[in-house]
Backbone:
C-alpha cells in the first residue's frame, strides 16, 4: 500500500475532528498558561499548558498537510499528543475549583485526547 | 520520586544536545521544505520537512521549559520526534544527489535522532 | 494610563474576532501551502502562504495572552499581520481560477486583514 | 525590480545574523518565560517573553524561506520584531538584579533588535 493510499483511505471525519479539537485545545491551553503564570506555585501548571499548546499546534499543522501524511510519524505524534493532553488534563483538573480557565483547559484536553484516539483507531482499521 | 527530582537528576548535557540538535534540524528542514516546494513532484518531501521542522520546534520548546519537565509527555514526544526525523531523513536521503539542501537536511535529521535517543537513554537511567 | 487599563478598555469583540480570523487564516494558509508545494512554479505562493500561517499563529497566540497586552508590540504585530495577509491574498487571488484552496486562502486572508484593522481602530479609540 | 532580485541583492550576512539572533533570542525568552511563570507577580514579564519568543520564531522561519522573500511583509515583520524585542528588553532589564535568566533575556533581545535593524538598513539600500 502506497503512502498516497493511506491518505485516500483515511477517515476524513476523524481528521477534521482532530483539527478542531487541537485548535480548541491550543487556545484553551494558551489562556490557561497565561492565567497561571505569575500565580505563586503555579509555574508547573503554566509550563505543562504551554507544552500542551505547542504540541496541539504541531499536531494540527501536520493534519493540515495532506501531502505529509505518513503512517509512522503520524501515529507517534498522535500518541505523544494523547500523552501530553492526559498530563495537562490531570494537572488542570486539580485547579478546577479555583479557576474557570483551568476547568475549560481540562475539558479541552479531554476532548483532544478523544479525537486523537479516534483518529488512531481509524488509522489502524485502514 | 517527585517531578522536581526528575529535572534535577536529568543529564544536562543530553538536554543541551537535544536543544542544539532540534534547533539545527528545524532550520535545515525549513530550508529544505522551501527549496522542495518549488520543485515539481517534490510536494511530499516538502510536507515531511515542514512537519519535521514543526516537531523539532516543539521538542526544543519543551526542553526550554524546565518547570514542565514531566516524564510521560517528554518520553512520548522524544519518541515522536525520533520517528519523524527518521521518516524525513529517509526521504531526503533519496534526493541527496540532486540537492545539497536535502543532504544537509538528512544529516541534521540523523543528528537529531541521535540526540533524542541519548536523552531517552539518560531518562531511563534516572 | 497603565498597561492593565489598556486590556480592560479593549474591545473584547474585536479581540475575539482577531483570534477567530487568525485561526481560520492559519488553517487556510497551511492547506494552501501544502497544496501549492510541488506544483511547478508555485514555490513562491507556497512560501508566502507558509509565512502568513506562521504570522497568523503568532498573532493569535499574542491575543490569547491577556497579561502580555502591551500597546507598542501589539500595534506593530497587527500592522505586520495586515501587510502579510495582503501579500498572501494578492498572490492567491491570481490562482483562484485553478485552485479552490487558493480561493479559500485569499478569502481567509481578506477576513483576517479586516479583523486586524478593526482591532487597530479599537485600540486607537482607547 | 522583480521579487527574485530582492533576494539575490540581499545582504546574506545580515540575513544570517537575523536567523542566529532570533534563534538565540527565542531560546532566552522561552527560558525566561518559564522561570518567571513560577514567580508571584511576574505574569506580565512571562507573557511578554512568551510573545517575544513566538515573534522571533516566526521572524526566523520567514528568513529560512528564501522563496517567500517579499519586501512589504518582511519590512513589517522586522519592524514588529524590533518593537517586541524592545518591550521585552525593557521589562527584563528591570529584573536583572534578581534573575540571571532575565539578564540573559534582555541581552538577547538587544542583540536581536540590532540584527533586525541592520537587515532593515540593508534592505533599504537595495
Residues:
Amino acid at each position: 500500500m502506497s503512502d498516497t493510499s493511506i491518505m485516500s483511505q483515511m477517515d476524513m471525519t476523524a481528521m477534521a475532528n482532530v483539527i478542531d479539537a487541537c485548535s480548541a485545545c491550543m487556545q484553551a491551553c494558551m489562556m490557561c498558561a497565561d492565567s497561571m503564570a505569575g500565580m505563586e506555585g503555579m509555574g508547573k501548571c503554566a509550563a505543562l499548558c504551554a507544552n500542551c499548546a505547542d504540541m496541539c499546534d504541531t499536531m494540527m499543522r501536520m493534519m493540515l498537510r495532506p501531502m505529509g501524511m505518513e503512517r509512522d510519524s503520524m501515529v507517534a505524534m498522535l500518541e505523544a499528543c494523547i500523552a501530553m493532553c492526559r498530563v495537562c488534563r490531570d494537572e488542570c483538573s486539580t485547579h478546577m475549583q479555583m479557576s474557570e480557565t483551568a476547568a475549560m483547559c481540562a475539558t479541552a484536553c479531554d476532548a483532544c485526547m478523544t479525537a486523537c484516539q479516534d483518529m488512531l483507531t481509524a488509522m489502524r482499521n485502514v
User: Anything to note?
Assistant: Chain D has a mean pLDDT of 93. Residues 52 and 84 of chain D are 6 Å apart (CA to CA). The longest helix of chain D spans residues 12-37.
